[in-house]
Amino acid sequence: MNQSQYSRLFSFLFNIANDVLVQAFEKGDYKKVTLPFIVLRRLDLLLEPTKEAVMQFSQAEEFAMMPEESQDQQLCQITGYPFYNTSAFTMKILRSETDNTRLRQNFEAYLDGFSIHVQDIIGKFDLRHYVEKLSSVGRLGLLIEKMTDENINLGASPVIDPETKEEKLPGLDNHTMGTLFEDLLRKFNEDFSVTEAGEHYTPRDYVSLLADLAILPVAGTLKNGSYDIYDGACGTGGILSLVQDRVAQLSTERNKRWKTYLYGQELQPETFATCKADLMLSGHSRNFTYRQGGINRLCFANGSTISEDGHPGKKFDFCISNPPFGPPWKADLENWGYGSDKSKIVDTRFYGTIGGKVLSFVPGIGDPQMLFLANNVSRMKDDDEQGTRIVEIHNGSSLFTGNADGGESNLRRYIIENDLLEAIIAMPENMFYNTGIGTFVWIVTNRKEQRRRGKVQLIDAISIKTPLRKNLGNKNCEASDADRAAILKLLTDFEENEQSKIFDNREFGYWQITVDRPLRLRVKESYDLTEGKLKDAEIDLCREALAKVASGTPLNDWSAYAKALGLKSTLLKKLRPLITEIDPDAMIVEGEVDTALRDTEQVPLLYPGGIDAFMKNEVLPYALDAKVDDSKTLIGYELSFTKYFYKPVELRSRDAIASEIRELEAETDGLLNEILED
User: Fold this and answer.
1) CA-to-CA distance for 230 and 379, rounded, in angstroms?
2) I need a surface site. Which of 3, 71, 112, 371 has the fewest CB within 10 A?
3) Structure pTM?
């Protein structure tokens, strides 16, 4: 199919919404009606050659005697696809029905005849609801008529002109069909959706980069065999499809036999249906179930990856994702039944152990992105020679949010101290359709090259981009073939230069220490015992004790003064704030610290001499009585691209500034006189 033919088909399908659905549906519903009908028509045409054989077999006596699983297997074997339809109807047959009531009944029977995975797509699209509405407004027949128009072909085989015997319409191979479906989805989102155009859509140029970063650095070590690819935030499935295509291309180029299996999970039902339909139409996935631990599981799960793990215990060779960042994940806590208490989370995906200490990876409730990274880390193969490679998109907050020993920091610590972090790449801003923020690609692997052991590479690719001639939403640039090659070269060269820095793992770690100063109290020369919460009897006891304190007892030594009072500790505790004040020149109160002077410091793990040297050099010269509370010392990790790649703007010279002033003076000469004359 040439570009002109593709464009005509695309325009025809997209304009169906304006021709059939206008004034009967909200514009935000156009894709919800059109896309599933395109799916049905494609399946309809693919099943057409085996329709009669399926009908005969499904009506045979032996079929009724088979277990349901065997029925499904046999019918799929007949069709050659992981789907079938046992109803007596096709869209061509339905087209001939003129009675609206019977058409609806027959169409529902047609839907009921599809196999289980198509039924899943139909249900997630909520198609039966829209069929009811289409029928009620008299548009169902018109839509079927459009889908079966003789001027378009959604089948895999070409349409032959019966008279000339020449090709009238080209067939759509699986790849072209998948591309068409994704292009239509993006166009509907851009033109008619009430949500952002790129909410579930990662630009293909960016996905191509992810695929290259995941596969190319290890392509030389991949052996013939099968590889599992997983996306825990799979959206419409674009990342999975493109990565699979890339693996297939490289396999052919290198004369290898690499087979890939796709797995994913998506929260939104409609987006999930789109993903499953796209993978089915494009042929990227022919298997929608797998067996693990004696349990049949779905390759593509619908539900929250965080609180409804669709692949418990499953490990993968490649994990490639663009997870959501920003929306709160409170709903997951509620789904677990934990209310708002994050501490109750017991899912082992979100915990790790270092040096015998269990670390929680649970982040702040306002952003789930690090939970997706933790989920992928939990999927890494430990018992496999190839291990697992994770390539994941994040925003800047993934680098630094979270205090020491907080969930985000703990995850960074776990990844880095286990030597899993290969590189982080800073990408240009405005790469996405629906946001202009800069993003960062994390590359995590448990099979580092020898030269990378104990090291982390940071790559500044912010300037590596190609401007678009026309903005697509917020997207004003792309990663061209040359751009992707340049970024990949920076990664694989593993050299220090202006855009690539290499660091020891411990460069990003720090001790968070609590520095305390001793409490120093002086007894005030005048005070009012009635200002506190002392009872009358207690006031009397305190006055009596104060009167008995020997003259000469130092007022600047609370420990000695308190001993001289001879009061019980509970009463002394009430009395102290009424009669004392902080005095930096007073004696130290034994065993107590001045919380008002408490401070925290970050000490780099690579600081020469460690915490002791830091205190000696940075603190004690200014506070001789300062001490570290070792019980409160924590370890944290954060990364800063600005720190390593910042380039100060060179200031202009005096001569340049003076010259500009003179030019401005010349331009404005006489302007004041003109204003006054007016």
Assistant:
1) 9
2) 3
3) 0.87
Structure tokens at 397: 């907050």
Tokens representing residue 519 in the block: 């409490």
Q: What amino acid is encoded at 628 in this protein?
A: V
Provide the token pair at 621: 């010269």
> What gap in Å lies between CA 1 and CA 258, rounded to an integer?
28
Q: Let me know: does 580 contact 524? Beta carbons within 8 Å.
A: yes
Question: Which alpha helices (DSSP H) does 254-405 contain, by range?
Answer: 269-282, 330-336, 369-377
| Residue 252 CB contacts under 8 Å (≥ 6 apart), including other chains | none
Task: List C-alpha distances in Å: 156 to 111, 162, 176, 472, 541.
Answer: 21, 18, 10, 31, 99
d(CA 648, CA 636): 28
* Distant-in-sequence, close-in-space partners of 191: CB < 8 Å, separation ≥ 6: none
Q: Report whether 262 contacts 243 (CB < 8 A).
A: no
Long-range contacts of 31-35 (CB under 8 A, 24+ apart): 31/184, 31/185, 31/188, 31/189, 31/192, 31/193, 32/125, 32/126, 32/130, 32/270, 33/130, 33/134, 33/143, 34/184, 34/188, 35/125, 35/181, 35/184, 35/185, 35/188, 35/274, 35/277
**Block mean pLDDT (10 aa), the chain, length 678:** 89 92 90 92 94 93 89 92 93 94 96 94 94 94 95 91 87 85 82 54 89 94 94 92 92 94 94 89 86 91 96 96 90 92 94 95 94 97 92 95 95 98 96 85 96 97 93 86 97 96 97 97 93 91 94 93 94 95 95 95 97 97 95 96 84 83 75 61
Nearest one of 139, 250, 221, 235 to 189, comparing CA atoms: 235
Q: Distance of alpha carbon 279 from its chain centroid, rounded?
A: 21
Which residue in 250, 253, 221 sits closest to 317, CA to CA? 221
Evaluate whether 246 touches 280 at the Cβ level (below 8 Å): no
CB 474 within 8 A of CB 430: yes
Q: 17 near 185, Cβ under 8 Å? A: no
**CA 667 to CA 664: how far, in whole Å?**
5
**DSSP assignment string, 261-294:** EEEEEESSHHHHHHHHHHHHHHTS-S--EEEETT
Which residue in the block uniquely carries the two structure tokens 């249906």?
A: 273
* 8 Å CB contact between 213 and 39: no
- What residue spans of 113-237 are helical by DSSP H? 116-124, 127-136, 140-147, 174-191, 204-215
The CA distance from 390 to 178, in Å, is: 25
Measure CA of the first residue to CA of the last residue in the chain; give whole Å.
Answer: 70
Q: What residues form DSSP beta bridges with 635?
A: 511
Enumerate residues 6+ apart whose C-beta is below 8 A from 632. 513, 514
Distance CA 636, CA 603 (A): 10
Question: Which residues have a Cβ under 8 Å from the Cβ of 633 and sit 6 or more positions away?
Answer: 511, 512, 513, 514, 611
Are 438 and 383 a contacting pair, CB within 8 Å? no
Q: Taking the alpha carbons of 126, 127, 128, 130 in that order, is the dihedral positive or negative?
A: positive
Give CA–CA dist 39/34, Å, rounded.
Answer: 9
Q: 3-class DSSP state for residue 258?
A: strand
Measured over the CA atoms of residue 525, residue 526, residue 529 and residue 533, the dihedral's sign is negative
Q: Which helix (H) or strand (E) holds 7?
A: helix 3-16
In the sheet that holds 518-523, the strands lie side by side as 580-582, 518-523, 588-593
Contacts of 318 (CB under 8 A, 6+ apart): 214, 215, 227, 228, 229, 230, 243, 388, 389, 390, 391
At position 55, the amino acid (one-letter code) is: M
Q: Which tokens belong to 450?
A: 């020898």
Q: How many Å is the Cα radius of gyration of the chain?
A: 35
